[in-house]
């Protein structure tokens, strides 16, 4: 039929345009087959490597003084609202510090809690000059606490060989700094084991 001839002519012309380097005999040979497979080689997509955003190094952070508190900001009264927020945070974390609350449960929560804003006192220390220091924790690092006292003095207190007391709603907890040598982010994921300790 006439329609099939037109189709044959169209396919022949299409193949000629698509594959100009192929001879007419080869095209005719392809047309005698039942199926015509057009070869197509898609371009391989090169995967773009995601660039990891690099933060500041420890040296750069020190040079930029990112963690330093300016002298005019070192005032106890400025951080009292932070302490009020911390108290509410602990109450919510412990589902209310009720008289019948289990001490071990509260202690376990405090071990993993964020202490920025807590009022602590150095209860015991191998260095007598640290004993009695009381203030709000402004910064916690792996080995030290930075505490602002009521006298508006910023104290850097090492955790090692110091015992800190923390009081909230009548509940007093003791933190053995020597067993607490972790960053705040590391503490939240650490599993603490219950065991007695008498050393500093």
Automatic annotation (TrEMBL):
Any Pfam family hit: RNase_P-MRP_p29
Q: Which SUPFAM superfamilies match?
A: Rof/RNase P subunit-like (SSF101744)
Any one annotated GO CC term: ribonuclease P complex
Please provide the record's keywords in A-Z order.
Nucleus, Phosphoprotein, tRNA processing
GO MF terms here are:
ribonuclease P RNA binding
Q: Where in the cell is it found?
A: Nucleus, Nucleolus
Q: Look up the domain of life of the source.
A: Eukaryota
An individual GO BP term: rRNA processing
Q: Oligomeric state and partners? A: Component of nuclear RNase P and RNase MRP ribonucleoproteins. RNase P consists of a catalytic RNA moiety and 10 different protein chains; POP1, POP4, POP5, POP7, RPP14, RPP21, RPP25, RPP30, RPP38 and RPP40. Within the RNase P complex, POP1, POP7 and RPP25 form the 'finger' subcomplex, POP5, RPP14, RPP40 and homodimeric RPP30 form the 'palm' subcomplex, and RPP21, POP4 and RPP38 form the 'wrist' subcomplex. All subunits of the RNase P complex interact with the catalytic RNA. Several subunits of RNase P are also part of the RNase MRP complex.
- Name the family the entry cites: Belongs to the eukaryotic/archaeal RNase P protein component 1 family.
Q: What does this protein do?
A: Component of ribonuclease P, a ribonucleoprotein complex that generates mature tRNA molecules by cleaving their 5'-ends.
**Record's protein name:** Ribonuclease P protein subunit p29
Gene that this sequence comes from: Pop4
